[in-house]
Amino acid sequence: MPYTCAPLGSLADMTRLSAKSLLLLFLLHFSLQSPWSHGLQPGEPEARKIYIVYLGERRHEDPELVTESHHDMLASVLGSKEDALSSIVYSYKHGFSGFAARMTESQARKIRGMPGVVSVRENQIRRVHTTRSWDFLGLDYKQPNGLLAKSSFGDGIIIGVLDSGITPESPSFSDAGYGPPPSKWKGICQAGPSFPASSCNRKLIGARWYADDLDDETRAQEVLSPRDSNGHGTHTSSTAGGNIVHDVSFMGLVAGTVRGGAPRARVAMYKVCWQSCSDAAQMKAMDDAIHDGVDVLSLSIGSAGENPAAMHVVAHGIPVVYSAGNEGPIAQTVENSSPWLLTVAATTIDRAFPVVVTLGNNETFVAQSFSSKDSGDDQFYEIQSYQDEECNYRHINETMKAGSIIFCFTSNFSSPPDYGSISYMVAMKGGRGTILPYYHDGVLLQETNIFKNAPWVPIDYEMSYKIYQYNISGIKHGKPMAKISATRTTIGSSVSAPKVAVFSSRGPSPSYPGILKPDIAAPGVSILAAAPKTPPFGKDILYHFDSGTSMACPHVAGAVAVLKSLHPEWSPAALKSAIMTTALTYDNNGFPIQADGKTSKLADPFDYGAGSINPNMAADPGLIYNISASEYLKFFKCMGTGGLGAHGNCSVGKSPYVVADLNLPSIAIPDLKVTSRQTVVRTVTNVGRQQNAVYRAFFHAPAGVKMAVEPSVLAFSRGRSVLSFRVTFEATRKVQGDYMFGSLAWHDGGSHWVRIPIAVRTVIEEFYSNIY
């Protein structure tokens, strides 16, 4: 099945942030109305603007002392503590030190020259962009010397998408300004109902559909053409390679510009998904894709077993990007774990959609939801409450009253309410909103259940219990009431990101525990992209939100397209290595990335692989871990279908085959015996500009494991661009353990940190013999 929808981002108290947002809007309005904003005239006082003063690391552990130092610095320039207090807007006192304050340009210059000041810059009021994910990843399409510009926005690259079809009329696939398809393209535009051959153009250069394996009943229910009837394929295709489209919004939310990762790439759709996606159709589509001349394949599709077609696609120099699955946060749920695939986990971005729920006693709660501007009528409505087994579609449908807000309180964690059906029914029957508990159990939520006058709001157990208590007391004093505000949009460092999404499938791989999966993480929560013109939105809704590792996968495919345009000589393994070894493990505030689940925790390689994708750094990785197609073939013969299975080794020719020695940009040892050592070999190739580069090893050993790297220094030269090293692991404790995590990085003393993740589990052989 495609990995389509997912839960909203984690719930957070955004009340203060909303107040700050309002303050900023007020300041913006004031500055635009001020005559000073139109230029300083002779004799006029110097204009005051907001400047951001950055001071680097904190010099005090106590945040209040940090703020006090900001006041002192500002007072020394403005003349008094009172002026400093009235001038300061924000004090940055937790992750780093700095402040924002209103001051004149000359005052800003004085502060710029003070000791300890790293930088002073004027504050910028930036327009909110709808596909915030690409901005969050650093791919700014407006930068003349940025990565997108250097790669010609992916021009000349063909992204093949195996999915549910495509909506050719979408502005994301307009061919205005495009020349003929690349000469290497050999594909076709396969026509069918509601999809004439003219549906393809110079942007959407090809489309095929695969229905030969469908039964008669399914064929009778489907549109037998590349036409997308559910929106999944349209969404993923536009995320990977859609055009730059301005003035886009969803029901008034996040108005701005939408675009794909490689906006000038060409797109080819291979419709393999109907009510489901068969392996047979996928393999045929892959076969066609090799022939057609695609450069990258993106598949937001699940896989329960081995698909050898993908290995052949990679052997032909075509990277294959797959989604990891939506069964998180449970361990060992990751799919698509073959080593030649780039398997993608899903994360949040630095954007939140807070809504305020206000009870009749004026108690407020802040959750996240999509509520259109039209639904924020600022009126109280009666709460109609249901408890435990009453909270089901049938009972609510029979008993609800129009004009009320439906609220459920249930402690049944194993059988959560049917979110989508209940919220849709409430809207259709004249309800004013639905407040349902959501316990972060990995159940997928359909974010697009957004209705004009009946928003759906998921809340956590704490909020649910407080509303339940209010309802009990409210019944004694009159009808319990509530109102739901319209959604606001908050972006930037005030929203900690990325976080691994609760639904994102986790490792270790049950199929191949010796292969660390997933490989990488990318944005997959609340992604706005192209949609078909279908209900419940209506024909005027061309873009909508969706979540899932399905949405994360095309982000990586788009980034691969950009990198391949810049480095056409790189193999799929080299591209994968560049993406993994430059990934980020810290969020936008400098803290370790967290993973959402029952409770949040620090993320580890089984949550996000090597980390969060960083396309700009991946363009210049320094070193790469390359793998030839023949090595993948050895793995497939020993470990794949017909081989010895995931836990055994075998011989290829006269040499024993060891999975751990496959030259991946990661190391996974699922069975480090406490009585012996294990050594793995890795080989790196210098692809940096400096041929005579010297790299030194820096490593963090997994807990309970002794780790050594030999040699610890790699000296490259004009004639020595490929060097190997050994990593030895030895258990320091005789413990039957869980997986522990570490890392190894090679650093050249400059900008290159080539980092790989490590996962090791120690085992005691006699532990099992004593059991059995």
Task: Give an account of the 3D structure.
The chain has four domains: 41-122, Alpha-Beta Plaits; 132-350 and 495-618, 3-Layer(aba) Sandwich (Rossmann fold); 354-487, Glucose Oxidase, domain 1, CATH 3.50.30; 623-627 and 663-771, Immunoglobulin-like. Helices cover 24% and strands 26% of the residues. The protein is built from 19 helices and 38 strands. A hairpin with a 4-residue loop joins strand 14 (354-359) and strand 15. The longest helix has 19 residues, at 15-33. It starts with 14 loop residues before the first helix and ends with a helix. Residues 3-42, 124-131, 440-449 and 641-648 have low confidence and may be disordered.
Give keywords.
hydrolase, 24% helix, disordered N terminus, Peptidase_S8_Ser-AS, Alpha-Beta Plaits, 19 helices, Rossmann fold
Largest sheet data: 7 strands, parallel
The fold-level CATH name of the largest domain is Rossmann fold
Annotated CATH homologous superfamily of the largest domain: Peptidase S8/S53 domain
Number of domains: 4
Mean pLDDT: 82
Work out the number of β strands: 38
Shape: globular
Unreliable spans: 3-42, 124-131, 440-449, 641-648
Q: Give the second-level CATH assignment, the architecture of the largest domain.
A: 3-Layer(aba) Sandwich
Structural class: alpha/beta
The radius of gyration is: 28 Å
Specify the number of helices.
Answer: 19
The end-to-end distance, rounded to whole angstroms, is 39 Å
* Proportion of residues in β-strands: 25-35%
Query: How helix-rich are the residues, as a percent range?
Result: 10-25%
Q: In CATH's first tier, which class of the largest domain applies?
A: Alpha Beta
Write out the strand line-up for the largest beta sheet, numbering strands in chain order: 6-9-5-10-11-12-23
